[in-house]
Amino acid sequence: MLKKLFKKSKEQIIYAPLNGDILPLEEVPDPVFSQKMMGEGIAIMPSDGKLVSPINGKVVQIPDTKHAIGLVADDGTEILIHVGLETVALKGKGFDVKVQADDTVKLGDLLMDIDLAYIKEHASSTVTPIIITNNTDGSKQLSYTDETKSIAQETTLITITS
User: Fold this and answer.
1) For a disulfide at 96, which of 3, 14, 113, 130, Cβ 3.0-4.6 Å?
2) Where is the PTS EIIA type-1 domain (predicted)?
């Protein structure tokens, strides 16, 4: 019991992986994200197509459709970056992934080039949810930015305390 009382809390910062407009997850026009079925998070409406790592960690998953990247931060926080909505149907077109599963990444490393014009034309939205997928038990405290604009690798989106 005393260990819990004196245990130092740890903090993990999730920085913006894209430049753009920051939106609460509740405003994403897809119930899987807006109703937080996959987890808590935040979203960005990107203004350019450079997706960078929001953390120091490791790439754990890239689906064949290249529309998303799963990362795990050095502290164990699991992050899903889902580029656009209804982008699975694009079958990888519009996405130029620069990393692969098991790659170690540092904050700001280029993960993917996104052809935003192609995504806008062929998918329902370019809005990009950033989801914390391993906090379903609520053991981590998430604090979200009040900022409305994001600068990739500079703007703090989410501060996680465990």
Assistant:
1) 113
2) 30-134
Catalytic residue, candidates 66, 67, 82, 140 = 82
Active site residue 67: no
* Averaged pLDDT, 58-67: 97
| Residue 5 domain-assigned (yes or no) | no
Average pLDDT of the segment spanning 150-162: 96
- State the Cα–Cα distance between residues 141 and 137, nearest whole angstrom: 11
